[in-house]
Amino acid sequence: MSTVVLLTLTGLGLAALYFLIASGLSLVFGLAGVLNFAHGLFLSVGAYATWWAAPRWGWLPALAFGVAVAAATGALVELVLIRPLYTRHTEQVLVTVGLSLAGVALLQSVWGADARVFPRPSWTSSVVGVGGAQVPADRFLLIGVAVLVLLGLLAFLRFTRYGLIIRAGVENRAMVSALGIDVRNAFTLVFAIGGALAGLAGILAGMYFSSISPGQGAALLIFAFIVVVIGGLGSVAGAAGAAVAVGLLQQFVNYYGTAGAGDVSVVALLAVVLLLRPTGLAGKVATA
């Protein structure tokens, strides 16, 4: 029984990490219509900024600095690279893929390709007893942050002025612009929020793995894309449900199966969902 409890809670912790990465990705695609392959770079930027700042300023200021740098990076990418390409989707993919590769190369040139030990509060290294299982404390931190992010995003989109502007701009950009509202600023905000969420995910990923590396964001982005596709492109709530399914499946199969079986099972789940429901679990089904 304790093994099941441990696998469940650690699986939920992994699911929380996947959701934090996928939430920004899903938000940017759902509201701005951009499939951002440079999202993993925002994750790495936030992690490295926090790693650099933590020994100098302390953990909490470093956390805020990392999230802010990632948010600024997201806004800058939208202003300089994405804004001229909103109606040119092929170019969007090429630019974001190229930016991702260039960003990893830049991080490697500055700090090297080797993994760096990531600083973390001492209490996150402790364990908590639950149902006879000893669960790492940082898993509960991941789960709590993911729940807060999910509730915050849903509230932002439903109850705030900018959330309503963004949703209206997605449905009919010309009409919103005719009302004198600059939709471009709203989409820049979407990228800034997506970057901030990626930066936060990068920081928590550093705590989860106890280290960071230039290619870590790109590696995690693969599972984030799987979560977004399974949940339904553009659905934040769908991404949350898909992250739980992927995290639990991967954790249980890795434990009870052979090495690497968890990753294979996740890809198999993706294939099944695409065959049975191509729009994803929370996606809208097209009707004739």
TrEMBL record:
Chief location: membrane
Which residue windows are transmembrane per the record? 6-27, 34-53, 59-81, 93-113, 140-157, 187-209, 221-249, 255-276
Which GO terms are recorded in the biological process aspect for this UniProt protein?
amino acid transport
Membrane topology summary: Multi-pass membrane protein
Q: Name one GO molecular function term.
A: transmembrane transporter activity
Cellular component (GO) terms are: plasma membrane
Q: Which Pfam families match?
A: BPD_transp_2
Q: Where in the cell is it found?
A: Cell membrane
Keyword list (alphabetical) reads:
Amino-acid transport, Cell membrane, Membrane, Transmembrane, Transmembrane helix, Transport
**Family per UniProt?**
Belongs to the binding-protein-dependent transport system permease family. LivHM subfamily.
- Protein name as it appears in the record: Branched-chain amino acid ABC transporter permease
